[in-house]
Amino acid sequence: MKNQFFDLLKSLCEVFGPTGCEGRVADLIEKSLDGIPCKKDAVGNLIVHLEGKGKKILVTAPMDEAGYMITDIDDKGYVRFEKTGNADTGCFAGKRLTLGNEETTISAVGGVKVLHLAGGEAGDTPNADKVFAETGLSSEELKKQLDKGDFAALEGSLSTLPGGYLVGKALEARALCALLVEAIKELNKKDEKERNDLYFVFTVKEKAGMSSASAAAYTICPEEAYLLGFAPANDFDGVDEHLKGAKLGEGVVVALKDRRVLYFDSPLTEKALAVAKEQNIPAYGADMGACGDFSAGALHLVGAGIPCASLRLPCRNPETNRVIVKENDLENTLSLLCALI
């Protein structure tokens, strides 16, 4: 894929944007669109409209990363948290964090009770109320910049592994945003008369199960919706074949169902699998089990109902600062999305 794409993806991996604090991510995406008009709605969605003469189609991708909300700053300056999504507290100890809000950020380090004092808790994944952050600032200094209700997220960037693997923070969401930017740029080159009436929505609060996609759908009233999401991959040795789920490098996952939506009877799901087969784009249908697509869970019931299909990017370690995806899966997801819309 293009160097420009990787530059954007690197920037998206580095930016601070936990659930409820996605403004910096939206600003970065808007800047990367090179003057293509976009707007924010009342709930924080970033919306791009490419006018066309065909069907009115909605495409969504989540901007937020799994993170934490500050619940307390104690007298010693230790910061306490509650999760705002599916953040993995097992990854917390000793990691660099960013604390902040839409105006201010502060660097910190995550901590938990030391092993020799943990007793029976040693080796267990700590609950969110058992972790804390240190900034080096006193309680008084810290409270001048942060308050309860502000946010925290792990720091991270983008790197590569041999074999076409990419590793980065929040890639299960930010890679989808980068793909959507790439799709918008490509489709913007088409004449208005030759394309569908396309709405691209970068959504907020997905990780907390409060997806803003339904608010956008209520306003737009699309005829069809394609939702970009992630599919956890368990495709390593020692896992039974029927439990492996998505597989890195084997193509786009077209969700058949998840914990909130049945997709298998949707004409758009059938269309996605048929188009992939016709155009030799690696793709396969899969049951996503407990991995929900919160956008679809709310969006498909908006108004009189909206036909949906969910295209999922296979990944390992989702909702951490070391998510692994494969480059060819990114390329295939982009190809299938553009072919469908």
Fold blueprint:
Elements: H1 3-14, H2 23-32, E1 38-40, E2 46-50, E3 56-62, E4 68-73, E5 79-83, E6 96-100, E7 105-111, H3 115-118, E8 132-134, H4 139-143, E9 151-154, E10 158-161, E11 165-168, H5 171-188, E12 197-203, H6 213-220, E13 224-232, E14 252-257, H7 267-278, E15 283-287, H8 294-299, E16 308-315, E17 323-326, H9 327-340
Parallel strand pairs: 3-12, 3-13, 13-16, 14-15
Antiparallel strand pairs: 1-2, 2-12, 4-5, 4-9, 5-8, 6-7, 6-9, 7-8, 10-11, 11-17, 14-16
Helix pairs in contact: 1-5, 5-9
How does this model look, in words?
The chain has 341 residues and is α+β, with helices and mostly antiparallel strands. The protein has two domains: 3-65 and 158-340, 3-Layer(aba) Sandwich (Aminopeptidase); 68-154, Elongation Factor Tu (Ef-tu), domain 3 (Beta Barrel), CATH 2.40.30.40. It is built from nine helices and 17 strands. The strands form three sheets. An eight-stranded mixed sheet has the order 1-2-12-3-13-16-14-15, with helices on both faces. The protein has a six-stranded antiparallel β-barrel with strand order 4-5-8-7-6-9. Helix 1 packs across helix 5 and helix 5 crosses helix 9. The longest helix is centred in the middle third of the chain and has 18 residues, at 171-188. The protein is globular and about 60 Å long. The protein starts with a helix and ends with a helix. Residues 115-120 have low confidence and may be disordered.
